[in-house]
Design a protein that fits this description.
The chain is an all-alpha fold. Helix content is 73%, strand content 0%.
Length: 158
């Protein structure tokens, strides 16, 4: 028996984790990599989470009952923030498209970028407290979705 084989056998016998690791299938060379730690995507997560929390606070405190809420300065500030966030989502979409990676996330980011202005406009246009509350809940859901799709572990292509 050669020295290399003897060393390998002794290592396998000395640490059960080595044997367990050796029994696992090799990692796919093309396994998807998370983008959540990249600055642009981390910023999208941070902004979306902060905005989601503000919208949820508005829902919880009954701001939807105010008929003029969609025209208020605080809502206008949120609207400007969501415009910027939608642009960053589209930028993320274009980056992933250029890389040729993560088809699902790429498509979801584009959808969020296109849907966000619609959700904001629905809050502005809501004529009743119930409609405003529903529109705010839809906006909060979209902002939450923005966080979750970026931070979810990437999935291999189907």
């Amino acid at each position: 028996m050669s020295c290399g084989v003897a060393l390998a056998v002794s290592l396998l016998l000395s640490d059960p984790n080595v044997a367990l690791a050796a029994a696992q299938p090799p990692a796919a060379a093309e396994a998807p990599v998370s983008v959540a730690a990249e600055p642009l995507f981390a910023d999208i997560v941070r902004q979306s989470g902060a905005m989601r929390n503000i919208v949820r606070r508005w829902i919880d405190t009954g701001r939807a009952d105010d008929a003029a809420f969609g025209l208020s300065p605080e809502f206008e500030m949120m609207a400007r923030g969501t415009t910027s966030l939608a642009e960053r989502n589209m930028q993320g979409h274009l980056i992933l498209k250029e890389r040729g990676t993560d088809g699902d996330l790429k498509c979801i980011l584009r959808g969020i970028a296109e849907d966000m202005p619609l959700k904001v406009e629905a809050v502005r246009a809501a004529a009743t407290p119930t409609a405003r509350r529903t529109a705010l809940e839809d906006l909060a859901y979209l902002l939450n979705d923005n966080v979750e799709v970026i931070t979810a572990p990437p999935q291999p292509p189907v």
